[in-house]
Write a structure and sequence with these properties.
HTH_AraC-typ_CS, about 25% strand, transcription, four-stranded antiparallel sheet, Arc Repressor Mutant, subunit A, 10 helices, about 280 residues, elongated, DNA-binding transcription factor activity, HTH araC/xylS-type domain-containing protein, 2 domains
C-alpha cells in the first residue's frame, strides 16, 4: 500500500525514534553495487548529493535524483547502479524505538518522497555528518537535535511538493491559531483566503489530515485542557475563552473527545498531574 505524505508525517509524529549514524558513498559513472543488505534493526533515509542512479530495495527500483529521498527498512537487499555521471549519496540511519500498531511495519518498509527544496536538505545532511564526529555529550545531544531538524525539513519539503494552495492553507492555520476564541465559520475562512468552501475544505484536509472543523475542534479542546490544568476559571469562562458560547455544548464536545466531562478532567488532573486520558 502506497503511503500518503500525511501518513508519513503521522508515523514520525507518533513514533519514538533516535538518530544512529550517517555516512556518504560515491560511485563512478556506470558503476554497480549489489549483493549487500541494508543495516539490521534500523531504518535509513537515502539523500542524493550528486548525480542520478537506480536504487533497488528488495527488487523495487527507484530512479533517484536530487529531488527524491528514499526511506529504506531493515535488512533489505540492495542494488545500486549509477548512471551517466558520478553518483554520491548520504544515508541517515535511525532506530525505531516505539510506534503505534499501524506503523510497526515501517521497520520493513521502503518508500520515496519527492522534494523540491533539495539544496537546503543536502546542506543539512552534510552538517549532520560533520557534527556526528564530535565525541562529547553536548555535541551528541546536538546531533540528535540536528537529525530532527533535518527530518522536519524533509517532511515540510515533501508536503509542499504534494499540495496546491499550501500557502493559503498555512495562512488559514495561522489565522485559526490567533482567532480560535472567536466564532469561526468555514465558509468565511474560505472566502477570507480566496477559495470556494468545498475546495478550501479539500485542500485543508489534504494538507493537515483533518477537516477544518476537526482541526478547529482539536485546537480549541487542547487549549481548554490547558486552562483546566492551569486555571481556576469556571466552566463557562473556559468555554468562552476557547470559542464556545454555550458551556453545556462545550462539555458535551469535551466528553465526546476525551471520554470524561471537563470537570472530571480537572479533578483527575489535580489528584494526579501525570495521568494520561485514553
Amino acid at each position: 500500500m502506497e503511503l500518503s505524505i500525511n501518513q508519513v508525517i503521522e508515523y514520525y509524529a507518533s513514533s519514538s525514534i533516535q538518530f544512529v549514524n550517517a555516512f556518504t558513498n560515491r560511485m563512478e559513472a556506470g558503476e554497480k553495487d549489489c549483493g549487500r543488505k541494508t543495516a539490521r534493526d534500523v531504518c535509513g533515509l537515502v539523500i542524493p548529493l550528486i548525480g542520478r542512479a537506480h536504487f533497488s530495495f528488495n527488487g523495487s527500483v527507484y530512479k533517484m535524483n536530487r529531488q527524491m529521498i528514499v526511506h529504506a527498512g531493515s535488512s533489505m537487499n540492495i542494488e545500486i547502479e549509477s548512471l551517466s555521471s558520478p553518483w554520491e549519496y548520504a544515508v541517515i540511519h535511525y532506530r525505531l524505538i516505539n510506534t503505534p500498531e499501524p506503523y510497526r511495519e515501517m521497520l520493513h518498509r521502503h518508500f520515496s518522497l519527492s522534494v523540491n527544496d533539495s539544496n537546503h536538505i543536502q546542506q543539512m545532511a552534510l552538517q549532520l555528518l560533520q557534527q556526528q564526529a564530535k565525541p562529547d555529550s553536548m555535541s551528541k545531544l546536538h546531533t540528535q537535535v540536528m537529525f530532527f531538524h533535518l527530518l522536519e525539513q524533509i517532511l515540510i519539503a515533501a508536503r509542499n511538493d504534494c499540495y496546491e494552495n499550501q500557502n493559503s492553507i498555512t495562512a488559514a492555520l495561522e489565522y485559526i491559531h490567533q482567532h480560535y476564541t472567536e466564532e469561526l465559520l468555514i465558509s468565511e475562512l474560505a472566502r477570507k483566503f480566496g477559495m470556494e468552501r468545498r475546495r478550501f475544505s479539500q485542500s485543508f484536509e489534504k494538507l493537515t489530515g483533518l477537516t477544518p472543523i476537526q482541526y478547529l475542534t482539536e485546537y480549541r479542546l487542547g487549549k481548554a485542557k490547558e486552562l483546566l490544568r492551569t486555571s481556576s476559571f469556571p466552566m463557562a469562562k473556559i468555554a468562552e475563552q476557547t470559542g464556545y458560547l454555550d458551556s453545556f455544548y462545550f462539555s458535551r464536545v469535551f466528553k465526546k473527545h476525551f471520554g470524561m466531562p471537563p470537570s472530571t478532567y480537572r479533578s483527575t488532573y489535580k489528584k494526579n498531574p501525570y495521568f494520561e486520558e485514553e
